[in-house]
Write a structure and sequence with these properties.
Length: 404
């Protein structure tokens, strides 16, 4: 039954090349549509780097059964868009609640500013940028100044600050910001991934019957693909395996990683597929023996959740937001960021097909139970209605019961 609730989501980019926050935005739109909630989204035409999406800029288009508006980006740095600013200033007051995604970029900050000025309740999702790694390793001085003068006032005035895992919330807590935090894991479309799991031996890749180790994520320094390559090179049983790196990123970094693979003597044992989505992604997940994400810092880890949904055992590092979820549900192995720890975990899982199957089935069950779109939509609607409840003075206490 349709709801009278009107929600506006604002994000810098909806391009899948921009990583997990953009991908999870689609899940939010689908989850809210299933609950009859009209959710509009405003984004720029950013398609990663200097590229632009080929999308209409003169009106709304349908995405995931909801309405989306794209605005031209005038600058690559921070994604400034004057047309978006003008639109937000006029239209933000038409919504019951505004949900922003990201920090240190124009779109979400402008939306929060206009919402606050118009007296519209707003929720801010930092999307991982308040973690220690991001603040210390990328534009450190600029971010420190911006956080004090721009982000902090908006975060402190938000009805809630949306974190996707307890780890992300804990990292942000180190900043001692007087905010109203809520942990609400991202949901996803599970059914399609689960159906793609092959009834035949699912750990056999297309390359000469070798067992596939799959990395499926952006290529970025924070993801530590170099550690994965070194751990793979140290495997004693490497001749019966294949490492697939499915992702894209900065060409210079990609070139260095490929050179590292060559220097380690990996040769044809590593397959670089580039960005993978749709059928290619489902096929890779179906054929993988083990999924690996050795990230130094990950606020959630959508690819990890997808791998669990496809009944694949996962290996993640302690820096991954879903590490606690993986350990709690017995869906894989959680290791430190060292080459030795990752090599040991790979060796153990590759040696036992029954153990891989047990871990994979446990992960799929947990994902279906806690990370489905239906579960996500119910929690998200609960958050919105709690924020909008008469007499609400802060979201934190009331939404605590919504956290799984």
């Amino acid at each position: 039954m349709p709801s009278s609730l009107r929600v506006l989501h604002v994000i810098s980019s909806l391009s899948p090349l921009c990583g997990g926050p953009s991908v999870s935005m689609h899940s939010m739109l689908k989850a809210l549509r299933r609950r009859g909630i009209a959710a509009d989204v405003a984004a720029t035409d950013d398609d990663g780097g200097r590229a632009r999406l080929d999308v209409p800029l003169d009106g709304p288009v349908e995405i995931d059964g909801q309405s989306a508006r794209y605005f031209p980006r005038q600058t690559v740095k921070y994604g400034f868009s004057a047309p978006m600013s003008r639109w937000l200033r006029v239209h933000v007051r038409r919504y019951d609640i505004v949900h922003t995604h990201g920090l240190f970029s124009f779109a979400p900050l402008a939306a929060a500013w206009y919402a606050r000025a118009a007296g519209v309740p707003y929720i801010m999702r930092p999307a991982g940028v308040l973690d220690t790694w991001g603040l210390q390793n990328k534009s450190r001085v600029v971010k420190a100044v911006s956080l004090r003068l721009v982000e902090r006032p908006l975060l402190c005035s938000a009805a809630a600050v949306h974190f996707t895992t307890p780890l992300e919330k804990a990292r942000a807590a180190r900043l001692a910001l007087p905010i109203r935090p809520i942990v609400l894991p991202t949901g996803m479309e599970i059914e399609g991934l689960a159906e793609e799991v092959s009834p035949e031996p699912a750990d056999v890749s297309a390359a000469d019957g070798k067992r596939m180790i799959l990395y499926l994520a952006r290529i970025h320094p924070i993801k530590r693909v170099d550690v994965l390559l070194r751990a793979y090179a140290a495997l004693q049983s490497r001749e019966s395996t294949e490492l697939v790196i499915a992702g894209d990123g900065d060409p210079a970094l990609l070139g260095r990683l490929k050179q590292l693979a060559a220097d380690l003597g990996l040769g044809d044992d590593v397959r670089w597929t580039g960005f993978a989505e749709g059928e290619l992604k489902r096929r890779l997940l179906s054929r993988a023996a083990v999924f690996v994400l050795p990230s130094a810092s990950e606020n959630f880890g959508m690819a990890v959740a997808e791998a669990m949904s496809a009944a694949k055992p996962v290996i993640v590092t302690t820096g991954c937001g879903l590490a606690e979820f993986v350990a709690r549900h017995g869906a894989g192995m959680v290791v430190d960021e060292s080459v030795a720890a990752l090599r040991t975990a790979l060796t153990e899982l590759l040696a036992s097909e029954p153990r891989r199957r047990t871990l994979g089935e446990a992960g799929r069950a947990a994902a279906q139970r806690e990370l489905s779109l239906d579960a996500f939509g119910a929690r998200l609607e609960g958050l919105y209605r709690t924020v909008l409840a008469p007499g609400t003075t802060g979201a934190q206490a009331k939404v605590a019961a919504l956290e799984p």
